[in-house]
Amino acid sequence: MKAIIQLLKEAGSHIVPFRWENETFSLLDQRLLPHREEWIVCNSWQEAVSGIREMVVRGAPAIGITAAFAMVLAVRQAVKEVPKEYKAFLRQAAAQIKKARPTAVNLSWAVGRMLKVLDGSEHDQIYEVAVDEALAIWTEDVQANIEMGRLGGMLMEDQKGILTHCNAGALATGGYGTALGVIRGAVRQGKGVRVFADETRPWLQGARLTAWELMEDGIGVTLNVDSAAGVLLSSGRIGAVVVGADRIAANGDVANKIGTYMLAVLCKENGVPFYVAAPSSTFDHSCPSGAQIPIEERDMEEVTTCGKYRVAAKGVSAFNPVFDVTPSSLVSAIITEKGVLRPPYDKAISTLSN
Ligand code: MRU
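Above: the input record for the complex with MRU. Below: its predicted structure, written as tokens.
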């Protein structure tokens, strides 16, 4: 983990959503940010899964890395508790970990990658192999973010506003961020940027996490309600919208936080570029289009309440899809660590799987 912290330090960033120290995996409880910084120790793979399900940790790449460490915890349990049937134990744990949340493909990608190396390992080395692979997944994510930041930063206009949605920052990844990584990259390149952060109902990732992260780094940020995006995008103040992604289909359709599709339509209407920043682990080459992406729906209470406070009349019905799909026709470019992809996306995306 020290090497990862050093990598981030050199890139001018310090926030991480998890720790692996003294053989212990802990999660920063993002539900309490920015008011309280509390860490939750995961003693079992089941506790890591609960952390994903209950939004202690969120954001596609961060969910993937947590899943990799959940596999480390499963290996530790298997070797200790069922040494003779450890392979069956791991397969069952992996199936459950994959189900923690449905939309972010980084989750099944990371579990698949862990299973692959574990399958080829000897019993007496399996724990060390698991730890090394989870740390490699984390390290590669940070490296990818820094590279996306460099490539995406070059696309940002100097002295223009950048609007972002949800939190696709250090907290949503292994560190540095995807969309916020692009913003950090633009700042490192000496560009003057002002970030506009959608508050992002109902979990308020924009208000609680994005605004806090950028303030921590001294990057100018203004918070707006989600419905102010139209006014901003028609005002001429915004040079680009940059968002992250939970899953990108083979044709370039993008699943991301609910409200992203509205932004893409507004960008088209107002002639503002709409950029998606995502590492190659977010591409699902087996998914032909957005129509096949599973979209998570969460409890109605997330809509009828605001934090702990009830807002709507008791008993009212609510619609709470957590993500939406933006058709690739509305995406100006997809920024990856392997290059900036432009339409036609099916062709550009197929080169990533090589
Ligand atoms: O429900 P969340 O907070 O997990 O949703 C997160 C997002 O939609 C992010 O934009 C996406 O995961 C990209 S994170 C780099």
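Notes for the reader.
Residues 58-61, 104, 166, 168, 172-173, 178, 205, 244-246, 256-257, 322 surround MRU (CB under 6 Å).
The chain is about 40% helix and 20% strand.
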